[in-house]
Amino acid sequence: MTWTDQAELWLSNAGFTTPPIEDLHHFSGYNIAIAGMVKDAEKTLPNLMKQLEIFSCAFDSAHIFVLESNSEDHTREIVRNWKLNPPDCENVHTNLLNSLPNRIKKRLKHINDQKKAKQNITTQPGSDGSDINTEGADDEHPEFGDHRIFHKGGKLIIKPIQPAREFEEIEALKHRKETEGYGSVREERYVIYRNFLLDKVTSYYKAYKEETGVTIDYLFWVDMDLRGLDIQAIASEFSYAWRAGFDVVCTNGIKYTGWYYDSYATVYEDGVWAYGMERW
């Protein structure tokens, strides 16, 4: 990886830049459940939440499950407030349009100006002397017209899961570690929480289908301590996977150095498992 690419990754990981999002229409007509675990991520979680809101609003409905446990910072409050103040998808879309790079904004504005010229839209003076568009839709963007990055009508449901105390299974593992020198508790703790979260999502899936008749089509599992996601790249990969008939799509985090971050999921060409090695 070149130094330029590494610099771009570093800026993206640090939250200074975000890959532009131009087209998420591939998600229209589908419903998705998003699940992830988080602890002590108050610095990075708000930015990830904004990206997940964009991703979610592009679906017909999105159901976000966040398992937060034992955070010592303000992560617990951030997750709780997210549920109490869910975003309006139209506001999310407007903010996304306004955040596009200037080069894309200019192109969209040029397209909208051409469309207006072709339609020969007439105006008439208002009572305050301003112009009133007699043919434009009230909900169109003043500069970009009816351009959409994702469809209207998306619904976002946030379902935080916040146990009041540590699970008994995990407390027992901690006790064994203290008294018997048991191995690392961290990995087994993740297994217990992930299985618990998966059971919650599965139960919700069945109940939601019975109640509404709507099937949740996909499950998107995400690490909630990520600094950010490349939403446009995910949309492209989803589209390709659907067309190609794949049932599962996997991805991995990349450090700014260009190496895969998750050593658990990495096996080298010589068959050596990356976990515990210093090669990454």
Helix/strand structural class: alpha/beta
Poorly predicted residue ranges: 132-136
Radius of gyration over C-alpha positions, nearest whole angstrom: 23 Å
Query: For the residues shown, what is the average pLDDT?
Result: 82
- Helical coverage, percent range: 40-55%
Please give the count of helices. 8
Largest sheet: 4 strands, parallel
Percent of residues in β-strands: 5-15%
Strand/helix succession: HEHEHHHEEEHHEH
**Widest sheet: strand order?**
5-2-1-6
Shape: globular
Q: What's the N-to-C terminus distance?
A: 14 Å
Report the strand count: 6
Task: Provide keyphrases for this structure.
280 residues, alpha/beta, globular, two-stranded antiparallel ribbon, 8 helices
Short description:
With 280 residues, the chain is α/β, with parallel strands linked by helices.
Topology, pairings included?
Blueprint: H1 3-13, E1 31-38, H2 45-57, E2 61-68, H3 75-84, H4 89-98, H5 102-119, E3 123-125, E4 131-133, E5 155-161, H6 168-180, H7 185-212, E6 218-221, H8 231-244
Parallel strand pairs: 1-2, 1-6, 2-5
Antiparallel strand pairs: 3-4
